Amino acid sequence: MTDEFDGMYDTFKALLDSFPPSEAVKRLEQFGISPDVVAGIRERHEQQTIRIKELEEPHAVVLGNRDTWYTGPHAKDKCWPAIVDLLRKDGWPQEPAVSSLDDSSTRVVSLLNHPKEKAFSTRGLVVGYVQSGKTTNFTSVMAKAADRGYKLFIVLAGIHNGLRRQTQARLVQQLVEPNPTMWSQLTGLDKDFTPQENPASYFGKSNKTHVLCVVKKNATVLRKLAQWLEKAANYLEDCPALIIDDEADQATVATKSINPLILSIMSSLPKSAYVGYTASPFANLLIDPSAADLYPKDFVVNLPKPAGHFGTEVLFGRYALDGEDPEQVDDGYDMIRSIPEDDVPCVRPETRADVEGFEPVITDTLRAAVEYFWLVTAARRIRGIGNPHSTMLIHTSVNTAVHNSFARPLTHLRDKAARSLTDPGFISRLRSLWDQETERVPAEDFGEKGVPFDQLVPELPGVLESCRIIMDNSSSEDRLDYENGPVVAIAVGGNTLSRGLTLEGLSVSYFVRSVSAYDTLLQMGRWFGFRNGYADLPRIWMTAELAGWFRHLATVETEMRRDIDIYMTEDENPLTFAVRLRTHPALRVTAAAKMRDAVTAAASYGGKRVQTHYFHTNAEWLRGNIGAARTLIAASVANAVRVEPRPDEGRYVFRDVPHEFVTAFLSEYRFHERSPENDADLIIEYIRRRIATAGSLGRWNVAIVGNPKGGEFTFTPGVAVGRNNRARLDLNNPDPDFVDIKTLMSRRDAAVDLAGDTTKLAEKAIMDRRGAQLPDTGLLVLYPIDKLSEPGPEKKLRAPLNAEEHVIGVGLVFPEPQGADSTVDKYISADLSNVRIEEEDYSLLEGEDA
C-alpha cells in the first residue's frame, strides 16, 4: 500500500510541473483517485511546504499566505544538480555549504509564483552580505526556477561592463555549459543586449530552451530590451520570467530612467517575478510601499552569514545592541592600519581644481601597504592553498585622472624594489614589517601556519616580476582579468571596483575616499568575503575617521538584520514592517534621492537601552557632566522613596525618584554630538509622552555603578563609590579630544534595581522581570570612570583613556510598553557640511552603450 501511495505522490509531483497545487489536486480527483488517498497526498505536500516555510535559515517576511508550490529539487532536474557538481569540484563541502545554499535558494523559489499560473507580478528582496556568495545564490535560484519551467531570465548586473561581463561568465559556466541544449543567450561575454530579428525563435512554442539575458543598468540598453519585448508581446503570454536585480540598491531606486524602464520591462511580461539582491538594502526598504515602484511588497529574505565570511563586524568590531552583554561583543581583528590625515592630500587632490596635473606621493603608509602586499603574496605562494590570485586595492578617488596618476610612481616603486632585493637595508625593513604584522595577528589564531620571513625572500623576485599595476576604471583598457591564469595585481580604481565586482584574492586595501551614505560605504568594502588559506593576512590602511564610520556601520547593519529577523517571527509582512536605522552625524542612510519617501523615522525607546560610549576629554566639558550628575544624586538623596547603599558591590540604588529630576539631568548633561541615538531632546519628549498617554515613566530608579577596587569618586556627602576602568579604543585618532570606550553598560547593570538573583538571567528574562516588578519605572545608571583607565594586557586594540577629568557615563533602561508605545520623530539625515564627499557617478546610466 505504501509503494502504491508513493507512486501516486510521484504522479502528483509530476502534475505540479504543469499545475499549481490546487489544480494538481483537482486533476487527481478527476483521475478517480479515492478521497482518502487525495487527502493523504495533500497532507504530505503540506508537511513538505511547512518544512520549507519553517526553515531555521533563511528567515523571511512574506505578504499573505503565498502558495508554497515548490518544495525542493526533483531527481529528474538538470540545472540545479549541475551547479552542485561544479561546487563540489571547487571544494564546497556538502555540510554546511551546499546544504545551506540548497535550503536558502529553495526558500526563495518557494516564494515565486508557479510558472503555470495565468498571470503574476511579484516583487521580492534578498538581503545578503558583501562578497558573501549572493551571485551563487541567485544562480541557484535561477537553476531551480528553470528546472520547474521558468523560461526567460533577465539579470540586471550593475552599471559597469566589468561586473556585467563577470556575471555573464559565471552564469554561462554554471548554467549554460553543463546543459548547452537547454539554453539560448541574448547576450554574450563582450556583448550587452542588442535586439534580435525574430522573437518567435526565442519565445515561440517550438523553442523549449530557457532564455538568458545579462544586461547593465544602462538606460539605452534597457530601452532596447523593453522595446524588443513589447514587439514580442504575442509570444510572451506563456513565458514565465524571472528578473534578478544584482546590487538592487544601486541605480534601481529613485532614478529617473532605470526604475521606470524595469517597470516597463515587467509590464511587457504577463508572468514576471522581480527579485532584488543586495547587501545594503537601506534604499530598497525606504521606498514608499504604496508607490508604483519596486518595493519588495511580496517578500524579504534575510540570508544567513556563511561560515568563514569576513564582514564589517569581524574586521571593525561594533557596539553592543540592546540586550547584548558588552563583554561578549568583540573589538574586531587587529587588521586596520591608520593613515594620518596629513597623508590624505598626498594621495588625493583636495579640490576638483587640483585634479589636473595631480601626481600622488608615495607616503610611508602607502609604501608599507604595498610592501606588505608583496610579502603576503609570497607567503601565500609558500602555503600553496586557497585562491591562486593576489590583489591589492588602492581607492582614493572616483576620478579616473587621479587613478591614472598612480601608474608612474607605483611602477617606479615596484621596479626600485626589484633592484633592491640585494640591499641589506631594504631586506631589513621588509623583515621588520613582516615580523611586526605577524606578531600583531598570529597565524595560529586563524588555524594557519606562520611563514618565517627567511622563507619569503626567495619568492620575492617572482612576486615583483609578476606584479602588474592596473588602473581599473570606466575609461581604461587594461582591466582586471582573472580568467587567464593566476594574477598578482595592484589595482587602482573607483566605482568600477566598489560595486559587485569580486577582487579575487584581495589581501591589502589602501582606502581614503569619503562617501556620504551607508550603502555606498558598505559596498566599498571589497575586502569583505572569504579568505581561505590566508585569513590571518588581510590588512586595511584607512583614516581613523573612516574606521570609525565602518564601526558605526557594522552596528547599523547588525541591528537592521536583527530587526528584520525579529519582524519575521512576528505577525508582520513587507507592507507593514519598518526597519529602524540608526543615524550618524556624518553619514546619510542612503542617497538623498532614494530617501524621498523616508524623511522621518519614528523612534521609540520602549524596552530599549541607551548608553554613552563617545566622550570629549577636555576638562570643561567633563566638569559640566560631573556637575549634572552630582545635582541628580543630591536630588535623589532628598526625594527618593528609599535609598539602597551596596558598598560591597560599589553600587547605590535610589528608588522612585520623580521624573522631573531625571529630565532636568538630561537637559543639563551633554551627550557627545557624534552619538545621535543619545538625543536628550528626543528622550525627554518620549518620557513626557509616556507620562501623558500611559501614566508610565513618572517615577525612576536612579543607580550608581562603581568599581569597589577603584579610587573613590564622591557624588555628594555620604555617597561615594570606586571609579570604573574603561579604556578607549586605539583608533590612532588625530583628535585628542575624542574617545570611544565602545562599551559601558553590562547586562547585570540593567538589572541593578530588580529583586532576586539576576546574575544568570539573559536579556529577555531581565526585561520580563522588569515588566513584572517595575512595569512603569525607568532606570538611569551613572558610571564614574577613571580619567586614566589603563587597558588590561589582553586588550590589544585598547589604549589608556587619558581624559583631563573623570568621566561620567550614562545608561538608560526603558520598560516595555504595556500597550501601544509612544513615538518621537527624527529625520533620517546627516550634517555633511564638514565632510569632503565624492558621490557615486551615475552618468553611465544614461550614456549610449554598444
Q: Descriptors for this entry?
A:
850 residues; alpha/beta; six-stranded parallel β-sheet
Descriptive account of the structure:
The protein is α/β, with parallel strands linked by helices and 850 residues long. The chain is 34% helix and 17% strand. The strands form 8 sheets. It has an 8-stranded mixed β-sheet, sandwiched between helices. It starts with a helix and ends in a 23-residue tail after the last strand.
Please identify the structural class as seen in this structure.
alpha/beta
Average pLDDT score: 82
What is the makeup of the main sheet?
A: 8 strands, mixed
Please tell me how large the radius of gyration is: 30 Å
Give the count of helical stretches: 24
Strand line-up across the major sheet: 1-8-2-7-6-3-5-4
Runs in which pLDDT lies below 50 for 5 or more consecutive residues are 286-291, 577-602, 825-842
N-to-C CA distance: 63 Å
Q: In which range does the helix fraction lie?
A: 25-40%
Q: What form results from the Cα inertia axes?
A: globular
What fraction of the residues are assigned to beta strands by DSSP? 15-25%
Number of strands: 30
